[in-house]
Amino acid sequence: MRAPGTRSRDHRRSVARIWSISVWSENGNGLISPSLSSKGGEEEPPHSLVMSPTLKSSSPRFLDEDKALACIHCGLCLGSCPTYLETGDENDSPRGRIYLMRAVQDGRLALGDTAVRHIDLCLGCRACEAVCPSGVQYGDLLEHTRDHFEKHYRRSIPQTFLRRLVIEKIFPYPERMKWALLPAKALRALGVEQWLPKFAREAMSLIPEAISSADIPEISPALGPARGRVGFISGCVMSVMFGETNAASIRLLNRAGYEVVVPRSQGCCGALFAHSGNLEAARACARQNIETFEREKLDAIIINAAGCGSTLKEYGQLLGTDPQWKDRGLSFSAKVKDLTEWLVTARTDFGLRPSGFGFRVTYHDACHLAHAQRITKQPRELVKAVAGKNFVDLPESDVCCGSAGTYNLTEPEMAERLQTRKIENIVKSGAQIVVSSNPGCLLQIQAGLRQTGSNIEVLHIADYLDRATA
User: Fold this and answer.
1) Which of 309, 302, 306, 311 is nearest to 251 (CA)?
2) Is 86's pLDDT higher than 80?
3) What pLDDT is recorded for position 356?
4) Separation CA 380–CA 365 (nearest Å)
5) Residue 126's pLDDT is what?
6) Quick one: pLDDT at residue 49?
7) Starting at the edge strand that comes first in sequence, how are the strands of the sheet with 258-261 ordered?
8) For residue 348, what pLDDT band results from cuts at 50, 70 and 90?
9) Is 268 left (phi over 0), alpha (psi -120 to 50) or beta?
10) Are 55 and 109 spatial neighbours (Cβ–Cβ below 8 Å)?
11) Considering only CA atoms, which of 98, 108, 16 is closest in space to residue 53?
């Protein structure tokens, strides 16, 4: 007998089939039902899809069918999906995208511009996972779909250059990124940004005015009585653009009584590759990091970047089909802790106390911390411990700011819409300081505030706490 609340595979397949017929096949022509549009009326959503029952699929199956069928199309995800909130188009909702994924795999929809467009527009924020009653692993489905699409879909030359060269050959390598930033710094120093094409101006606006670097030692001893030994992931973007934030993170850990080890042979966590559709490269990154940190005897492996943390915690899943690495991946991931997650247990031991700064402070939830890792309480506890009565809530704090890794480069129009939405809510909150825990969010919010002429300060949570405990 099945436990209450569980569903057989046949039942899930039946529900999915009924939904696909009744919702996606109005009048027998395969169109999404206009009644599902949040805009109401009989307006047909953009890029309506025509499904072919006779189209044959020659591509290998890329989705785990059980994971895909876990979606019962209840619609509870709609209100949490940023792109659906903006467009009102079912094709841009989690349940709609899952249907598209399955339609491509089953050969009912060609792998062409329309299918790719709706998958590309997904932020990968995983807000849908946090509200899904069926526990759909949407992030896993999305990554495997993108991996398949990138192997079988031919992109334009500009998109290929951006994705395969800039994102995959520069961003994951700190030294290359430092060299790549030099022309941007020169253009900014010459004051000629306004003469650049729109896409170049938008990309340059994300580069912080002050790029911080810091010499991080391989071993930083604990201050006071030693409580343990932890490893630290320095990251790609973090080590290049937020070096001082890494240094602040290590100081906080040292004050909490932990010796911190930063292995020189560590590399990219693999998140940029996994999110952009190159799972094999992501797996190579995972194997390198596992091998590196296995050499050290550690109580935990600390990460201060939300997007990296979610991937690091899923190495077991990423390497799930590799019998030689799966268990090693699971063991590694079991040790990975977000900085705030780890510090909360040692709050009274590193000098955290209410500050007399008197500035109103708010907190923005980084998607991959709040949704993928389900960590929302710990960072707020730490910020409130310093801000006290000066903490103010941020409306829609868990709605994506539009950064989403490299999304603000590949999908600048939607990223700008979400950035505007976020900035309006920050200004509305009355906060003078915005705290977050992901480099992409910090860059996106800083750029948005600069465009409005606002002097609201944007800080990584490590910098905010370090300032209060220095």
Assistant:
1) 302
2) yes
3) 55
4) 9
5) 97
6) 55
7) 219-220, 258-261, 228-232, 300-303, 336-338
8) low
9) beta
10) yes
11) 108
Amino acid in position 334: A
Read off the tokens for 77: 């995800």
CA angle 234, 247, 207 (to 5 degrees): 70
Residue 10 confidence (pLDDT): 52
How far apart are the C-alpha atoms of 419 and 158, rounded to whole Å? 24
Show the tokens assigned to 400: 């994506």
Q: Provide the 10 A C-beta neighbour count for residue 9.
A: 11
Which CATH number is associated with domain 9-152? 1.10.1060
DSSP 183-223: HHHHHHHHT-GGGS-HHHHHHHHTS-SS-B-----SEEPPS
Please state which of the ranges 133-142, 232-241, 334-343, 355-364 shows the lowest mean pLDDT: 355-364
Range with the poorest average pLDDT among 186-190, 274-278, 363-367: 186-190
Distance CA 244, CA 237 (A): 12
310-324 pLDDT per residue, tens: 999 999 999 999 999
Q: Are 91 and 47 in contact (CB under 8 A)?
A: yes
Q: What angle do CA 277, 366, 347 make, to 5 degrees?
A: 130
Assess contact for 295 and 263: CB atoms under 8 A: yes
Q: Hey, where are the domains in the chain?
A: 9-152, 351-469
pLDDT band at 22 (very low <50, low <70, confident <90, very high): very low
pLDDT value of position 20: 44
Q: How confident is the model at residue 205 (pLDDT cuts 50, 70, 90)?
A: confident
Which CATH architecture is the domain 351-469 placed in? 3-Layer(aba) Sandwich (3.40)
DSSP state for residue 28 in the 8-state scheme: T
Strands 219-220 and 258-261, sheet pairing: antiparallel
pTM recorded for the entire structure: 0.87
* Structure tokens given for 181: 């930033």
- Per the listing, tokens 């693999």 go with 270
CA distance 412 to 408: 5
